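Sanity check. The docking grid for fructose -6-phosphate depends on where the pocket ends up, so I'm generating a full predicted complex first rather than guessing from homology. Inputs follow.
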Amino acid sequence: MRIIKTKDYDELSRRAAGIIAAQVIQKPDCVLGLATGSTPIGTYKELVAAYERGDLDFSGITTVNLDEYKGLPKENDQSYYYFMNDNLFSHVNIDKSRTNLPDGTEPDSEKACSAYNDIIHSVGGIDLQLLGLGHDGHIGFNEPADSFPLETHCVDLTDMTIRANQRFFASYDDVPKQAYTMGIKTIMQARKVLVVVSGEDKAEIVKKSFFGPVTPQVPASILQLHPDVTVICDAAALSKCDM
Ligand code: F6R
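Predicted complex below; grid placement will be based on this.
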């Protein structure tokens, strides 16, 4: 595990975009695993800027996103489908038919999850998976549990996650309570993993996830066992670690 400390969020975003750009340049038909949330927004802005300068070509890229709320229509501006189009896909020359997210509009969880597993297998797995880190150590929507979930599954979101996401909705009651998420096995099978973490409110969980014991109670801790992980943290997120 390589941990990179940046002075602030802007540097974090530039560094993360640089790693993704290198992947796209080295393998123009690669599969990128993508994340939503606040942290990667700056990274996506940097990628869009690189595309606009003519430095990146997304035409051969396939993407698979980590997760999607269950029950939100795609056009809802809080759906992850909407987020990805708004922050990245609509601004670069990606073929939208090769962008994939779990189908949050499919009410049958088993059907939605097995269809998404089939997509991930059919594209040959993930070359580079981008992740954010939840306050309870979740990655994707894999919440603390007694064991590590394997492939795509439907989760009941924890109260902590619902409250963290409430800022994007009119009220607590409007936040979806379930989501479809890629499993930990799928994330661990990605050939490279890139984690971005920003802010002092993540300092405690950064310490637990990357310097504490590996346990399904802190889902991100399993990344310590992945052979090719880069974690980019700003100084605030690393403020409880000796680095
Ligand atoms: C997003 C996702 C989540 C977020 C995590 C951190 O697709 O799967 O695990 O990465 O909740 O979110 P932010 O970046 O908003 O702190």
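Relevant for the grid: The two ends are 14 Å apart (CA to CA).
Also worth noting: The first strand starts at residue 2 and ends at 6.
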